[in-house]
């Protein structure tokens, strides 16, 4: 942390393997939260993502899961999101040897992680969002809309195109020539 305060950077390359760097970045993120150093937290999360993406098959990734989900940090959702993205991407490999035993053990000992991973896999990697149809002005819930995709309002059954005109995501009707 002292190095960061002087240089706005820190070295996350301990003498050991990538797995140690993954844990080191979790520790830096925890320190940043404790001392309310927002920029250090962002840097630690970015470095954690790089190291965890490279070291997802190491014991350090499993240890990072246990450490992140054991924290009572208000901003730990950022690290949890990174962990879930990597775990979902490599879920099949993580459940088979050589990673399998350690990863399954983590899922058994950290039930919150197992529940969030299951939810993420069940929802097809997306979260549900609330939308409002501009034609019938009724709200509905569906998986996160993707730009340039066509969707239908379940209330009035008209086709709409994704749009973000204001803070609440809304659908707007596609012009007749685009149908």
Overview of the structural elements:
The chain has 179 residues and is of the alpha+beta class. It folds into two domains: 2-122, no CATH class; 128-178, Rubrerythrin, domain 2 (Single Sheet). The protein is built from eight helices and five strands; from the N terminus they run ααααααααβββββ. It has helices spanning 2-7, 18-34, 38-54, 59-70, 77-89, 91-94, 100-109, 111-122, and strands at 128-133, 139-143, 150-152, 159-163, 170-173. Strands 2-1-5-4-3 form a five-stranded mixed sheet, with no helix packed on it. A hairpin with a 6-residue loop joins strand 3 and strand 4 (159-163). Helix 2 (18-34) runs antiparallel to helix 3 (38-54). The chain is globular. Mean pLDDT is 76; it is low at 163-179.
Summary of the model, kept short:
This protein has 179 residues and is of the alpha+beta class. It folds into two domains: 2-122, no CATH class; 128-178, Rubrerythrin, domain 2 (Single Sheet).
Number of strands: 5
Distance between the termini: 56 Å
Order of helices and strands: HHHHHHHHEEEEE
Helix content: 40-55%
Attribute tags:
alpha+beta, single chain, Rubrerythrin, domain 2, 8 helices, 2 domains, 179 residues, disordered C terminus, 5 strands
Q: Could you outline the blueprint of secondary structure elements for this entry?
A:
Elements: H1 2-7, H2 18-34, H3 38-54, H4 59-70, H5 77-89, H6 91-94, H7 100-109, H8 111-122, E1 128-133, E2 139-143, E3 150-152, E4 159-163, E5 170-173
Parallel strand pairs: 1-5
Antiparallel strand pairs: 1-2, 3-4, 4-5
Helix pairs in contact: 2-3, 2-4, 3-5, 4-7, 5-8, 7-8
